[in-house]
Amino acid sequence: MSELKQSKYIDITTDYGFKKVFGSDTNKDLLIAFLNELFRGRKIIADLYYNKNEHVGDTEDIGTVIFDLTCTADNGKRFIIEVQRTAQDNLKKRMLYYSSKLIADQAPKGNRRAWNYAISEVYIIVLMDGFAMPDAGDEKYFLHDICLCYRDHDKIFYDDLGFIYVELVNFVKAEAELINDLDRWLYVLKNMSSLNGLSTYLRKPIFEKLFQLAEYSKLKPEEREMYNVSLRNKWDAESIRSSQEEQLKRAREKAMAEGKAEGKAEVITNLLSSNKFSISEIAQLVDVTVEFVKQIEAEKAKGK
Fold first, then answer.
1. Which of 81, 101, 105, 163 has the maximal Cβ count within 10 Å?
2. pLDDT, tens digit (0-9, with 9 covering 90-100), for 165-183
3. Residues 238, 165: Cα–Cα separation, whole Å
4. Residue 2 pLDDT grade (very low, low, confident, very high; cuts 50, 70, 90)
5. CB of 146 closer than 8 Å to CB of 133
6. Pairing relationship of beta strands 143-149 and 122-128 according to DSSP bridges
7. Burial tier of 252 (Cβ tally within 10 Å: 0-12, 13-18, 19+)
8. Taking Cα atoms as reference points, which of 192, 232, 213 lies closest to residue 4?
């Protein structure tokens, strides 16, 4: 496969880039730093272990990278995190399924009475690249921190199951607007492949390591090939998603136009029944063509 025209740094939201930066024990300090910013002080991860678990069927899903992690907090408490760079299909249901599996897998095969449902905390972290949260409407939040709450008030029902969705399309800050390390991480995730170097806004040891790791020129030939394939897959997925969004937009516009036409047809029928206006006057009043009014008139005559 021919090599693509490359920027100085790889796109770390590709499958390959995400795995290279966050998917190895050697670089787990990068993942720990990123996760700690997402928890915003609610938890502080001191160490983590990459579990070897794989979800059945996920190997067939294009654009899905999953890390199953056992984390140790600074207070010694252990909990489970699943980090995903995921596709958008059935997003919410997929995350509910994965979290349920992480919970169910904790049950021992025997002596459950003694275990007494001592479930560890479970968190699902979802990096959403290039698409919006389903049913988000006009909301422009880039971080969604979710737990189980009572429906009628804001009191938390259960705090040991959580979902953090990172909606990169809504993160629009420029470098000069970055105010904390969470901002810096999201900025780098979204813009890494278009940057030319480490700016003063990002000059911290953790980001210096990240930039060194992500240099395209330091990849071995086989790594470049894998990255190029991954990059093309991302572009193809974005092209398909863009085409689907355009088709959906056109379908909505057509439905709205048809709805308006139906409403105008009813108005025209009423005006024709009044016998007070000419065809041209009705067309002008309702903002339609004379031919459309004549069509409604003919349909009205047939109805009689």
1. 81
2. 999 999 999 999 999 999 9
3. 19
4. very low
5. no
6. unpaired
7. exposed
8. 232
Q: CA 169, CA 129: separation in Å to the nearest integer? A: 7
SS3 at position 294:
helix
Which of 173, 57, 69 has its CA nearest to residue 125? 69
Residue 82 — φ and ψ, nearest 5°? Answer: -115, 125
Q: What gap in Å lies between CA 40 and CA 179, rounded to an integer?
A: 13
Cα end-to-end span (Å), the chain: 69
Secondary element (H or E) of residue 156: strand 156-167
Is the whole-model pTM more than 0.70?
yes
For residue 29, give the amino acid letter. Answer: D
Q: How do residues 76-90 score in pLDDT, each as one tens digit?
A: 999 999 998 876 678
Residues forming a β-bridge with 82: 68, 124
